[in-house]
Amino acid sequence: MMGISLETSYYLKDNSVIIISLYNNIYDEFLPQLKELFSEFLIKNINNVILDLSKCLFMEKDIWEYFINLKKDLIHKKGDLVISGICGMVKNDYNLMELSHCIESFNNINDAFYNFGILTDIKSA
User: Would you identify the CATH topology of the domain 8-116?
Assistant: First the structure.
């Protein structure tokens, strides 16, 4: 896996929810980097996480297991971890492993924000 690196981006919404976007393929070798990234936010008491997987093409099993355990930790801190924009092979794996029982998935980031009580769009009737 020489030359392959973890690609992420993130932004903070309303000082309470961190949106972390994962790109391309997420291999088990990236686990230490992911743990370091998430620990930065946990230290700052940012306990609500949206994983934007709309640009993620593949994710290995150990990464999924890490996210399941991270969600459990966040729940103990009165937070949560949800997924947004899951598609393709990542969605297939999510469904095959029946991860909807562990981690809730939303079609888009606005729906995930709503889960955390953040209204982004006011729709007229």
Answer: Transcription Regulator spoIIAA (3.30.750)
